[in-house]
Amino acid sequence: MSPSKSDLPSRLLLSLEPWRNAAHWRIAFSGGLDSTVLLHLLASLAKSESLPPLSAVHVHHGLQAVADAWPQHCQSVCAALGVPLLIERVTVQPGASLERAARDARYAVFGSLTQTNDALLTGQHRDDQAETLLFRLLRGAGVRGLSGMPQQRPVGQGTLIRPLLDVSRAELEDYARVHQLTWIEDPSNQDRQFSRNYLRHQVMPLLTERWPQAQASMARSAAHLREAQGLLDELAQMDLAHANSAHDFQWLGLPSLELAPLTALSAARQRNALSHWLEPFTRLPDSDHWSGWTDLCDAAADAAPIWRLADGELHRSAGRVWWLSGDWLRTPVIGCGWQTPASALRLADNGRVMFSGQAPCGPLRIAYRQGGEVMHLANRGHRDLKRLLNERAVPGFVRGRLPLLFRADELLAVANLPGLDGNGQDGWQLHWQPTDEDQGLS
To answer: Where in the chain is the domain with CATH 3.40.50.620?
Structure first.
């Protein structure tokens, strides 16, 4: 038999059942009603149930003087419940949205603390879900945004879980009253200049007065939209499978897609597939800025169009679209001498180069294409480097970054391009690792 609606501990335990074998449960503890009830519930359950080790973390933003007393309050609550507490102080970066900046700082802490197989538990409830749906609806969000807060998502190396999303604030208040809990009332929660507070105090009371089940209905709508988003994600994966073709430049280590399978789709399916693909890399554009994708696709065949997004750029070259960020957007230093070719040479903003086999005699230097370079090839004589790159369909954005090996003014090799990357008779090759491993992982 399933737990009754009023049996909050059993409902919480059922919600957390998939994570009973986690290495650690850490509660994000602000000291407010939601997290106080969650902490008390878990500490009480731990006395009779076999749960993962519990701890709490309080993030002190330092945005208002009254908040200076909150860490001590949180420490007292945790001490009374026998739950270890970590207090983390952060500096909130100023910006257009103080709410978002504080949230970003808070979740940066959560991400750094959450290790493999850890679960971070937060106290958002059903009323929060309804507010989120309404807030995003007013901002013109799509299906993904209107699906609201997911019950779980990755954070750090572990998982963030919201086990109270099916619980109303009224139920949390009833529990707190029965157990005589005390909690922090953040004065900023009354400030109507914040959009969420305006919705909570001005709009939602009017809606629930007319439609008492409004919040439950809105949370249910978010669940429907979450299911719809799941179907859209499945469609995106199917469409992307056709565009994730192999190519000759896998060694670049760059995310890329074949363009033709994408442009064969309807405009809506193109946006859906590309949004799914881009989401791990960048904040996605709103609907008004998708014209950049159309411009990229419609540019002339000999053009090199770029779509600039919040956290990087999408380039079209060699029949593919490529995601570039970090070092790929910086201009590498023109060249440098290679004094010890037996060791790898680190290049500023451009990874590193190394030899396999015995390096040629020096003095050697690494430089980049400036135009007009000529290379001598056995059986072919002297050939323009530009033509050689064209023959191999080297993507345009790579050409100015390809390390060129010179001895004095003689071009000896072009890294990583078969037939140009070394001397077969002497048995050496020039290898380029475009980014350091750490940068690649980040």
So the answer is: 8-227
